[in-house]
Each structure stands twice: as C-alpha cells, then as structure tokens.
Write a structure and sequence with these properties.
The chain is of the alpha+beta class. Helices cover 44% and strands 16% of the residues.
Length: 187
C-alpha cells in the first residue's frame, strides 16, 4: 500500500486546478449582487442572501478542498484558520490572507485579505453603504466549517469598499458540533 499523500500547499493546488477568467468571474459576481439589489430592494436582505448563497457553496466546496489538499483533520481552531487563510483562499481565489488578532482563548481571530478579486471594478453608490458586497465569502467559510463540525460566526470588520484600509473578516468559533450519522448500527 503506498504511503498517504502529503498535504499540498495552496500554491500547488492553485497551479493544478482549472480556472475561469478573473474578469468574467468578477463581472458575473457583480451582476448577481446587482440583481439581488434590484429584486430584494433592502440592503440587509441582500446581505443575508449573499451569506446564504455562500453558505450553500461552502458546504459543497469543503469536499473539493479536502480531496485536493490532502489535509487531515486540523487539531484546533488556530490550525483551521491558518488552512483557510493559506490554502483555501489560495486554492479557490488565488489569494492569501493573514491570520491576526487572536483572543486569549484561541476561539476568535481575524482574516485580513491581501487582495480581493471580487471587488475589481466595484464602487458602491451611497444608497448601498450598508451592503457587505463580499458577504458571500463569510457564508462560504461558515458553511465549510459547519461541514467539519465547527459552528462559527463570520462577520466583516473592515471593508475597503466602505473606506477602510483593508478587507478583514472575523472568525468566531462557537462550538464543536457532534458528528451525526444518518443510520444506526444494528446490534
């Protein structure tokens, strides 16, 4: 039996996966956000919808992430945050993030994105100042972590589209979810 494959870096995975044109991706995402603003009218409802869309994507993307990265179970939330920042973001968006601002318990941190391809060509009008344009990312992280038994809260702290100096997400570990199996063993 061959030895298990070593975990792969985000750069190695990014180099080997099929990609779509970055401008097409950015413009398509922008069109989705614009259509949501038209359909839902309330900015807060758009934020919720983007988060839910991201959550639905995250619960599926985690399978691809685990299959292609050869990463075994992380030992704690700190290691999980590092994997998201260095491997997950690189694998799916071609960017990395820095993990900072840990609390004393090791249950809350910030991910500071070094780049954000979702916001190319984007300017928010005054009527959309409450919009978390990249809220889909918080949903993706929340959904993916829930699939590996981690209940989290993911919120935007800083957003360059709102005049801040960086894009910063806060990850807060809430609880470990017990694994449930869809069937019971017959005895």
């Amino acid at each position: 039996m061959p030895p298990p494959a070593a975990p792969r870096s985000g750069d190695a995975i990014f180099a080997s996966v099929e990609r779509v044109n970055a401008e097409l991706f950015t413009l398509t995402y922008g069109a989705i956000v614009r259509q949501l603003l038209t359909d839902l009218e309330e900015v807060e409802e758009v934020n919720k919808q983007l988060d839910q869309m991201g959550y639905n994507m995250g619960i599926r993307l985690i399978d691809e992430f685990l299959a292609k990265s050869n990463i075994s179970r992380c030992v704690d939330f700190k290691e999980t945050a590092e994997m998201i920042a260095k491997v997950g973001f690189k694998m799916f968006l071609g960017i990395t993030a820095s993990v900072t601002n840990w609390d004393a318990d090791g249950t809350c941190c910030s991910l500071v994105l070094e780049d954000n391809p979702l916001v190319n060509f984007v300017e928010l009008p005054d009527s959309c100042q409450g919009l978390h344009y990249c809220n889909i990312l918080s949903g993706v992280i929340r959904g993916a972590l829930e699939m590996v038994s981690m209940k989290t809260e993911v919120t935007w702290l800083r957003d360059m589209l709102r005049g801040d100096d960086a894009f910063e997400l806060q990850l807060k570990f809430l609880k470990q979810i017990p694994e449930e199996y869809p069937y019971k063993d017959d005895e």
